[in-house]
Hints:
Blueprint: H1 3-17, H2 23-38, H3 44-60, H4 66-82, H5 89-108, H6 111-130, H7 136-147, H8 156-172, H9 180-195, H10 204-220, H11 226-243, H12 250-265, H13 279-298, H14 302-316
Amino acid sequence: MGNRFQEEIAAALAAVEREDATPIERVEMLVEIAMGLQHKPKSPEQLLGAVDLYRKALEICPEGETLLAARTTARMATALQAVPSDDPAFLDEARRALEGARPVLETEGTAEEVAEVDMNLGLVLQGLAGLGRARITDAISAHQRALRVFRSTTHPKEFAILQNNLATAFLSVPMTDERAAMREALAVSSFEEGLKVVNLVDHPAEYAMLQNNLGNALQYASSSHAVENNLRALEAYDEALRVRTRRDMPVAHANTLANKANCLANLPDDPERPEAGNPENLAEARRLLREAAAIFEEHGDLGKAALVAEALAGIEVH
């Protein structure tokens, strides 16, 4: 933990001890400092520190302040769900916190607060569904509830993020039944709906995220139009790379490069003459994978670097 982190924790605890602060003011100060720790955390310890501050805030929250307690609980859940860990306990606790805060916010809070809880609950349930601890259909329902409030005309950024989350949920359902193609189509449609309300200038991060994920959905769709889908996927990746530059977003840049490389490796050089093969696209795919691997290594993501090296080895044999 860095010095700044220690200072923020010390400041939070000092704020609690201040004699001239009311209990409500102390809760609010703790929450504000915890939110500061959550914003672009440099380490998991900062997120865990934020969780501890939220817990302290809940301990000293006056008994009658149910709305303040619910808001604090909902914020604590966002810190819990952000902790990078293989231990499902963090997501389990986040789920309990969100489900506990929701009824109070529904009665005493705003529609936007309830929708934000549903938005976060959907993500938590998605994570738990991947571990076999929740149903993906419950995650989809939570996202859809949030969309009743976060509409494209009033909350474009939240609407776009929800469409991305919803699409990801559709794609996470095992594609083993007769409705698999329908879910793939719904996912592509959700990404495209999100892209209708965000743009490169006003919402660059959301725009790039949706374009990258749309590209993935298109290239992996079990469709008879594979070439057409891959060509559309390439366009989406190129749009994402307008935002995800090596200078500004190196790891995201490498992720999209790897996705684009995989797409190129499966695309004929001349879509009109697929029998002629794809030596040019394979050469470009190799170049992109080498660049992606170098970026991952540079930033210490050795797991992804190894996966990219494996993909590169698979292309090299062609």
